[in-house]
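Record type: ASSEMBLY
Status: queued
Input:
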Amino acid sequence: MEFDELDSTNAALKRIAEQGGEVGEGLLVWARRQTGGRGRSGRTWESPTGNVYASFLIKAPEATKNAPEIGFVAALAVRDAILELPRHNTAPPVLTFKWPNDLFVDGKKVSGILTELATDPDRRSWIVLGIGINLIPVEVPNQIYPVGSLADSHVDTKPAHVLTVLGRELAKWLEIWRTGGFFVVREAWRASGPQSGAPLSVRLPEGPVDGTFAGLDDDGALLLDTSSGRRRLMVGDVMFGDS
Ligand code: BTN
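Status: finished
Output:
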């Protein structure tokens, strides 16, 4: 479903799922611009015309505790989709993940992912998987990371084309996840994630924690070695490091 303007594609898809009717996996809501784009941790997502704002409906895993795995699946799909897009120079951009699901291109955040839960009138659980990708530069006030766009990295494309490639990559990674399990996804994420031992600073609601990257736990939690021992983090923003 395509819209010129929505408050938020996540909010719209959640409303559709909660009303019921013909909802099924892969249902896509996208908009050319959003007036109330939602980011993680209650932040807003700047959403002018020209970028990708899309939400996909995904069947929730049997165990709700596995739902965060979908964010990693989606980040891999975004990475692989971007690598398939036409670009103006020959050098491929450097794509890296910042935990949990941010994608950086040549050192700047270009894509963010927000997953939310929805339950339809038949009590079926769904994940609303929201993906934002900056194709063109965006003004972001109070940036907590450097923010960039694919245009900065000479990738020249339009939202409708990105969505075609992204839909295919998402189907591919969902299949890999469902057949191979989170283990396979985690290994693939690690290939574009921080090196083991990389210094990281993680912003938590109670303040920053410094340490070194010690991998991802079985459920995608960030393992951080700090001066007071290993921490297992489920929420937070990685502020800087080598990733
Ligand atoms: C983040 O904070 O990094 C997550 C940003 C997620 C933005 C996307 S844009 C499409 C979808 N609709 C929203 O309102 N948010 C997500």
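Annotation: The chain has two domains: 2-191, 195-240.
Annotation: The CA atoms of residues 184 and 226 lie 27 Å apart.
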